[in-house]
Amino acid sequence: MVDLILLQNLAIALLIGLVIGLEREIAQEDRQNVKFAGLRTFGVVGLMGGISAYLAVQGYDIILGVALLAITILTAVAYYKATEIGKHLGFTTEMALFLTFLLGGLAYFDYTVAVILAIITTVLLAFKDPLHEFTYRIPKEEFYDSLKFALIALVILPILPNQAYGPLGAFNPYQLWLFVVIITGISFVGYFSVKWFGAEIGLSLTGLLGGLASSTAVTTNMAIRTKEDKGIEYPAMVATTLSNTVMLLRVLFLIFLFFPALLINIYLPIGFMFVASILVAAYFYIQGRGDGKGEPIHLKTPFSIGPALIFTAFIAIVLFISKAALVYVGSYGLYLTSAFAGLADVNAITVSTSQLASGGFATPHTAALAILIAVFVNLAIHGVYAFYFGTKKFGLYTVAMATVIVAAGALVALLTF
């Protein structure tokens, strides 16, 4: 009886070889005298891989080794002869032939994975010129900085313990290092957004996207940029203001998730602050367009970890003070805790206060006021960060922005609370 599954897997192994071989055939059209392998050779090698895998499962392991050795020898001889005929320094086609044999063997065991890898391989082979052009355009500094960011985000962060340490359990290594990753990540987003879209659009996108994570981190990063790149204050202010606009929406969203009934107590002041922030962002955008300089902004580097470490150290201190206030003062210190928490971020205090209100440990009025205090303090402290990390001009603009937004919220709160 014919084994249809076996025939199917071997047919896929042959098809994988034919697809990769077709691409290699096209790629070698201009090298008629030194063509190494094409459609038929790759198809045969793919089928050989599938048959060798089948025979290995049947107990003929030596067949797999012999087939691979034969391909190795034939490839080496063909490459040697090709170098005698003409200039043939590349080794891509030869390596693709080895890979085709392995993919043919993989198709016998898992044809889905084999087909996916074959498509990826074919794409990599076909897009040789665009990939080479892309690598030539990448400055060395950007590549090295990207490796540094990958190190702190993909190597260091995952291995850090995600649990509380130290006095009152206030220090979580994973969460603190996450601040470093967020700030440097926003730096990357800002750098490449400006590079691809220009300062006005690029930094605005940075503010919107960065505000989803942390408006405080965006403010700090924009402040750092103003010292590194002169004349960037207006676009940086648009980004900073937009990040605060997103922060206000994020507060409402978190309340909706954890205690929707609280929205009725806080939507008016937050809503007026949102409108005020939109108007402020529009003002700085218009001012930036009418600045008259017209000079392109060239950011120096996408990676700057020093200020991120300083900011994270400050966040750690603020979190400790907040935790101490909550532990030693208790529920009566909710407002004080909100004020301290606002120095770092508003996410934690928004979630915790909403949960207190939903559990009956705090009235909706008290919870709403506590969240507003955290928002007010967070906006106000942005001015401090702006002055410390950025230029004096950026600091003054940030203070003005925070004053307008806080005033809008405070006025509505006084009238409605």
The portion of residues forming beta strands comes to under 5%
As residue ranges, the low-confidence spans are 291-297
Sketch the major β-sheet.
none
Estimate the global geometry from the Cα principal axes.
elongated
Into which percent range does the helicity of residues fall? Answer: over 70%
Distance between the termini: 83 Å
Give the C-alpha Rg. Answer: 30 Å
Q: Could you give the count of β-strands?
A: 0
Number of domains: 2
**What class would the helix/strand composition place it in?**
mainly alpha
Q: Give helix and strand order, one letter per element, not per position.
A: HHHHHHHHHHHHHHHHH
Keyphrases for this structure?
single chain; 417 residues; mainly alpha; 17 helices; 0% strand
Written description of the protein model:
The protein is mainly alpha-helical and 417 residues long. The chain folds into two domains: 132 residues, no CATH class; 278 residues, no CATH class. 80% of the residues lie in helices and 0% in strands. It has 17 helices and no strands. The longest helix is centred in the middle third of the chain and has 27 residues. The chain starts with a helix and ends with a helix. About 2% of the residues have low confidence.
Q: Any chance you could write out the topology, listing elements then pairs?
A:
Layout: H1 4-27, H2 39-57, H3 61-85, H4 92-109, H5 111-126, H6 128-137, H7 140-159, H8 173-197, H9 199-211, H10 215-228, H11 233-258, H12 263-289, H13 305-329, H14 334-342, H15 347-358, H16 364-389, H17 392-416
Helix pairs in contact: 1-2, 1-4, 1-5, 2-3, 2-4, 3-4, 4-5, 7-8, 8-9, 8-10, 8-13, 9-10, 9-11, 10-11, 10-16, 11-12, 11-15, 11-17, 12-16, 12-17, 13-14, 14-16, 15-16, 16-17
